[in-house]
Amino acid sequence: MWLRGLRPDIKDSDPGQELVGDSSVNTLNNRGAAFSPLKAQGETARRRMRGGLDNAVKQAEDRGLYDMLVVDADCHQREAYSQFVDYVKPEYRSALRAKDAKRITPKYKRIIGKRVMRPEVSYPLPMGPEEIVDTFSVRLQEIGITRPVVIPDPMLEMATDPRNPDFEVEVGKGYAHYMADTFGHLHDRFVTVIYAATTAPDKAAELIDDLGSEKIFSGVLISTVTLTNPSSDDWNPIYDAAQRKGLPICVHGDNPGDDGKSRNKSWLPIGFGLETFLENHVLSFPITIARQLTSIVLGGVPVRFPRLKFIFMEGGVTYIPWLMQRMDDEYVKRSFEAPLLNKFPSAYMNEFYYTTQPLESANKFALKNFLNMFDYENRLVYASDYPHWDFDAPSAIYDLPFLSETAKRKILGENAARAFRLS
Amino acid sequence: MGGEDGTGWRTVAKLSEFRHGALLVEVEGTTIGLIRQGEKVYAYRNSCPHQGGPVAEGNLVGNTQCRVAEGGLRRQTVSRSRLNLACPWHGIEYDLETGVCKGDARMRLKSYKVLVEDGLVRIRP
């Protein structure tokens, strides 16, 4: 496929003239289901990536995003585990390399492959450090994102790995040191977070103490599918260390497994025990986030660590008012089980941050009503989730018809700058 | 190729340029995808109503349909003849014939009338 402008110098009556470039041909495969990859033709075509983000670049230009601070609070740079195996104990390296192979599953290809054709959604995309800077970082800038916060999503499944706790500690530590060594000097281009091993909170706290002052780190990451609950006193060292370093706790949604995670021993059945990816994805992230959030609020973690900030990631936004209302109602009836609280649970939730993606905008009127039920203008932080299949470009926020200009600026950048302490 | 000919039609491509699949052309600053199936050509603006993705660059996929058999059993099939255009950003599917979104009929691709004659593809913006 190639992009060709109309050529005014060629008229309809000039059939003999050559058209610009050559034709590009798609052919149906033998299942009649999908086209084969296209051959790019011409200089313009070479710059275009099929299904790529050129339209998002134009959106950024049209909306003046280059003149705004746009922080992407949750994106992923798609490195393979094998990129940082040298940073973990030798006995764990083969296990990590094996995980790379498991990420390309026939099931995943069936789910994504035919439809979502952005080339960067392929798993894994073993980007080396140079590519990460030259491709990932630059590409995000082109679509208007000033400051990406890279969330190492491969870490999330470590929380329920059967080899725990030493494996979780080692992988989290190895990844953090790899990021600090490789990208530490690029902290003005993007930042990342330290993964905290929740099966070994003391070790996680050591890592936060050790690396938490490095400018490349802007938060502490925990998964939503963990073996223990976040209000447990066992987790206190993590909160204490994060609070000491001024780093927010980033609670990133996860699901209890698919083909690549079938050995996990989480508290949920694989794929929620449901039939389809769609069913699983509707529930998995917001529900597992809600589980952690409920524990954090009703267990009084914000009271125990009053200077600690929380950012809940990749659950969308509509679960927020539901959980606020639900917790307040239950709390009134059983406040004796949450004795640390000195205000409604919803008041604590209104002090946390929430990333916007995937923004549930099918009914914009309903979305407006959902948002009006909490302090969305000051608590939402834009996230792209790039390059994942359900990513949101900044226009997903900018184009919401009911947002004021002030709200757009806050949600797209200013709130996240405050939450992550970005300059 | 040529501009508007006084009747509102613009010649934008030769049919021989693409046997199957899509060709992107630009008309007055708008990128339009020409999608050919056999001798038929569809023309849609290359912008998904969802978030502006390059929908015309997407795959054609068979329409998934399901009927309820006796006893409530589901019988799901994927059509070989009824195709949907899937936006490459998020996979949202549009009926190739009508441009209407399969999951949300409120969303519809901007379409253009197409005339194929004398080996030329003409559209009416």
Structural key phrases:
heterodimer; A: 423 residues; alpha/beta; disordered N terminus; B: 125 residues; mainly beta; Rieske Iron-sulfur Protein; 6-stranded antiparallel β-sheet; 51% strand
Structure description:
The complex is a heterodimer of chains A (423) and B (125). Chain A has helices at 42-47, 54-63, 90-103, 106-113, 129-142, 166-183, 201-211, 236-245, 277-298, 301-304, 319-333, 345-349, 364-371, 376-379, 395-398, 405-420, and strands spanning 3-5, 71-75, 147-150, 191-195, 217-223, 249-252, 310-313, 353-355, 380-381. Chain A has 423 residues and is of the alpha/beta class. Chain A has 2 domains: 1-48, no CATH class; 49-420, Alpha-Beta Barrel (TIM Barrel), CATH 3.20.20.140. An 8-stranded parallel sheet of chain A has the order 2-3-4-5-6-7-8-9. In chain A, α7 links the parallel β4 and β5. Residues 1-48 of chain A have low confidence and may be disordered. Chain B has a single domain (10-119), classed as Rieske [2Fe-2S] iron-sulphur domain (Rieske Iron-sulfur Protein). Chain B is an all-beta fold and 125 residues long. In chain B, strands 1-9-8-4-3-2 form a 6-stranded antiparallel sheet, with no helix packed on it. Helix content of chain B is 0%, strand content 51%. Classes of the chains: A alpha/beta (423), B mainly beta (125). The interface between A and B is large, with 46 and 45 residues.
Structural class based on helices, strands and sheet pairing of chain B: mainly beta
| Assembly state of the chains shown | heterodimer
Under the CATH scheme, which architecture of chain B would be assigned? 3-layer Sandwich
**SSE pattern of chain B:** EEEEEEEEE
**Strands of the largest sheet of chain B, in order across it?**
1-9-8-4-3-2
How many DSSP H or I helices of chain B? 0
Average per-residue pLDDT of chain B, rounded, comes to 92
